[in-house]
Structures are given as C-alpha cells and as structure tokens.
Give the backbone structure.
Amino acid sequence: MRHAHRIAAAIAAALLAACGSTTTPTAAPATATPAAAPAPTPAPATAARVVRYSIVINGRAAGGAETTIAPDGTRTTHYEYNDRGRGPDLTTRIVLSADGIPRELDVKGLNYTKAQVTEQLRPDGAGLAWSGTSEKGASADATAFYVPSEGPFDSSALLARALQKAPGHRLKLLPGGEAWIEAELHADPTVDGHPRKLTGVAIAGLGFSPDLVWIDEDGELFADVSPWRATTVEGAEQVAPELLAAEQTWRAERAGRLAQQLAHPIGEHGLVVTHARLFDPVKKAIRDDVSIVIEGEKVVKVGPSKSTKVPTGADVIDAGGKTVLPGLFDMHAHMGGTDGLLDIQGGVTTARDMGNNIEDLTARRERYLAGTEIGPRLLRAGFIDGPGKFTGPIGLVVASADEARAAVTRYADLGYDQIKIYSSVDPALVPVIAEAAHARGLRVSGHIPQGMNARQAVEAGYDEIQHSNFLFLNFLAKPEDDTRTPVRFTLVAEGAAGLDLASPEMTSFVDLLKKRKTVIDPTLSVFEELFVSRAGEVPVAYAPVAPRMPAQVQRGFLGGGLPVPDGKDARYRDSFRAMQKLVLLLWQRGVRIVPGTDAMAGFALHRELELWVEAGIPAKEVLALATLGAAQVMGKDKELGSIAPGKMADLVIVDGDPVADIKAVRRTETIVTRGRVFKAAEIDQALGIQP
C-alpha cells in the first residue's frame, strides 16, 4: 500500500534528502465530488493484458513497473526504481475476489533499503491468514481488504476500485483499521490523441491524511504522483503535472478547512497564560507560578501570577502548574503532506526545511503565513546538487562556477536563509558556492560531496554539517568509497564502534569545528532507526506513541532499518552508541549542535531530544539548544527562542517537567503561535491519532 510504503521508507531509509520536484505543475480542470458509482468492470479477456508504467523522479527516468492480468484475473506485477542506489525491486502475484478483495498474495524481492522481503496471504478456513518479513496474523473476516506491507505497487488502485464497489464506499482493513472514500476528483486529459476519463480517488483511513490515486476507465492504476516522484502509464508522463496540480489544489482546500476548524484566534483583548512553570532558556531553569500576557502575536508581559493583572476581557489559559516552553525548533525538515499539523501538535513552532521543490515550498509557506494551512514558521535552505545518477530528487543542479553562482542568486533573491550542498556537487565548486552565499548573507551547510571529507568541507566554507555519519566518514571513508550511495550508512554502521573518539586525529578535527564555529545537525534519531530498528519491531522512537496511531501507520513502523549482515547486530548497535558519544563530546567541547530530524514531523524531534539526554547532555541544556540555541544559529533570537516581552508569542504547554524528565516534551497540550491557539487533542483527532 502506498501509504504504508511511504511510512516504512521514511523510517527505514530515513536520510532521504527531500521530497520535491523542480517541475512546475500547470493548472488542471479537476473537481472534487462525493464518492461516485463503481468504475466499469473490464470485459473478460481471452489473453493476458499487460500494462506498463514509467517512474520518474524529478524529471529523470528512474525505473518502471508492469502489471500482467491473466484471463482468470490473476495479477502479476514487477516494480523497480533507483533512487541514489536505493529503491525497491519487487515481484508480486495477487488473486482478487469478485468484489476486488485480495484472496491470495505472494511478494518477493528487495525493499527500498535493499533488504530481502517476503509476504504471503492465503485463505484460512472462512477467513484469511498472512505472514511476511515483519509480521503475521489471521482474521475470520474474509470481506476485509488486506493491505499489503510491501506490494503490489498498484495496491492503492485496487483498494480504490474495491471501495467504489463496497456499501457506503467503506471497507474494513486487515491487519486493522478501516478505509473510505473521502472525495473523488475528475480529469479528462488527452493521451496520444485519445481523450481519457480519469478519477482521482482520495482514500481516507490509511494514515494521517487521505492517499490519492488516479485510476482509469477500467479501474486500473493510471498515475500515482507526488512533487518529487511520478508513476504513470507508459506514454502518459506528460499528464503527471496536470494531475499533481489537481491533487495539490484539493489538498490545499482540505488544509484550509482544517485550519478554520483547528486554529483558535486570540481575541482582541489578548490571552493570558496563568500559573505556569516557565522554562527560561537563558538561565536554563524553571520559573514557578508565572503569567504570560499576549496581545496579538507578541508577548507583552511576563511576571509572577500573583502580581500580573489579567486584562479585562482577555482569554485565560490556566496552566495549573504545567510547564510552558518556548516553541521548539526542528532544524532538519522536508515539509510536505501533514507535516505542518504534526509539527504544531508536537510543539514545533519553527522548522527549517533542508531541501524541497521551490514552487511547492513557496506555496506551502505562503499558506502557513496566511493561516490557510496549519504549520510552523519556515526557514528555508536552498538545495544544490551536481549532475549524475545520484543527483538528489529536488533542487537545482549545477556543473560550473557560473551555474553555482546563479543557483545561489536565485535562492537569495527568493529570501532563503541558507544553502544546502548535496552529495554530487563537484568539490571544486564548494568554495565558489560558499563565497557567493556568504556574500548574500546566506549560511552554507549540507552533506559532504563525494571526493571530499568533512574537514575539507569546513575549510572550504561550510558553516554547518548535516548528519553525524559524515563526521565518522571523515575517518572511515577511503577514496574508492562512493559516499553518494548507501555506503555512507553501512561504513559507519560497521566502523563507528571501533573509532577512537579520544585519538589525536579526532581531537584535531573537533578543534577545527570549534575554531570555525561550525554547527552540527546530527539527526541521531534517524541513525537509531537505521542501525537499531529491526523488522517486526516498533522503533524505539515511536514505541510510546505507536498504539495511538492509525492502524496502517502502526504497521508502517515495522519495516526495520538497514539490512544487518549476519553476526553484525551488536556491532550496528554499538556504532549507534558511538554516534551518541560523539554528540556528547561535541557539546562538551563547545561545538554548537542543533536538533533536527529528517524523519516523521513532531514525534521524531521528541526522540532526538531524548537521545541527547541519554547521551549525557543535561535536559535543561537540551531544551535550551532546541529553543534559544537554534534561534541564535539562524539569527532569529531577537524574535524567537525564549518567552519575553517584545518577542513573538510562540509557546507550548506540556504536562510534566521536561527538565526533570525530557520525555515530558511528548505530552503537549496547548500550542500558541502566530496569534492562534491550538489544542493538541483536537489536532490528534483530525489526524486519526487516538487519545
């Protein structure tokens, strides 16, 4: 299932650079309607029917897929694409009932991270039984639709077709949950001179927001599109932008309705939060029984509750001894989908997008600013990569000094805050990019390009390094190791545990970072998922919240991390602990670190902060780094990062004391930002998250 695949890929692959495309979609004549009549059933065939698909990532051919439908209805599919050395290679056989319900399923091949996977569904008496790499189970209900964990690639279309036939357009799912059609879109493009009638089916119940898949007149998959990847019927690639535009218009309208429902504007007489335990990131301490007076979007007064007057007519939130934190920062995000809602629910009021489709991010940011979509304040990093088969799926591609300077100019003119250099940039262009960016007041950060190490990148002008694996690769990678591939993970998984963090070489490197005031964005939670998560187990990061998630989201957690070679389980776990030790060492030595996720919005940041505390950094220091410290790095500390008169009123109320127990950051109750109040419980309900 498409949504399960996306969640599993986000958890298992984790270090996806971004989720965007530089293709600008055009307007599409499509409308949303309630669930419609069932699609026509194809006439019986006397020979197998074959439908071929192309897969395009950011305008570049990346792979393909094929569905063969036998005369008896048995479907065989093959699905394969290459995303910078990652990507699935899966073969599937599926048999459907007359109502389109899966009765038999066989899946074999490699998942996104190249781990071997299998999956099987079979009749079991009057019901169904399933098993696979990460799970097994059985149900007596043979009318429920089994959602494949690994394939086939067109299973969203199969579910859409079954839902169209189902009573009330609603079906129970296996292993759990329920799906229904929230809306249908319609488009009538011309393909190869022939008019087509397509239906975009928005399937709710699978995750935090509906999945939308385009099916043709026969109910077969026609297209599955996103800002960075498009799967379309072969020969119909040119239609993808039109369908994407229609989908984005519908999603924006849906987000606008949610914003009206969930955002509670502060009244004209202001808002007062009373009797709070206020965390002060300057003093790194709690102030007891404090009141915070807010007018519009700003804090106007902070003082003892007993002496702070509540203005007549003001709204009042009695914090009742709960802790009020400045809004949290996520310094490594790639915004999309429901990330804005997840961030606000988790107390993240500022997020730094580290690479995205320019047009999509611009439109999203404008909706956040206008209040027509819920999301954090956005800081933006302009993504630059070099050409080649490992080029990132979004951003601008440069191959010369002139192109590099032009890319920096474009991002600077658009008001971006920094530049992110990716893995295929020619190392000779790094100082060119750095010089041009610094001349425009932009910071420079990123991955370490192939053919360069972290020390050289810092010396060439990096202000910041994303992902702590690159710090280890500074010592572990050999010239022949292509760090654009998953080697940048596996070398560290196998070698970090054996690296001496007290060696003269490491000491010299850390000294350089401190001298140059280089910031590190370690994204520890990502590597915990990659190195420590195992198939069939919920990752530690999400174990506290998994039972509350929609059923298919819970299932997506079970995919595991990197494939672990025989006998290397303990080594991978020890290497992750070495990464934690390095982050502690950096903090102890005075190297600035910032909390970022590159994973599930909101929830992953909570785990990032927990991992820093587990590493040995005191919780009060971690909270300061996640608020005022991050604001200082981005030059926003005069407006954000602490709760003080004259600053923006970005704050989160949590149940508990995160200074005593950092896990309390997970217990968000109320969030205030941009002159609006949000209730975490209401956002949860909108996302399908249980109390």
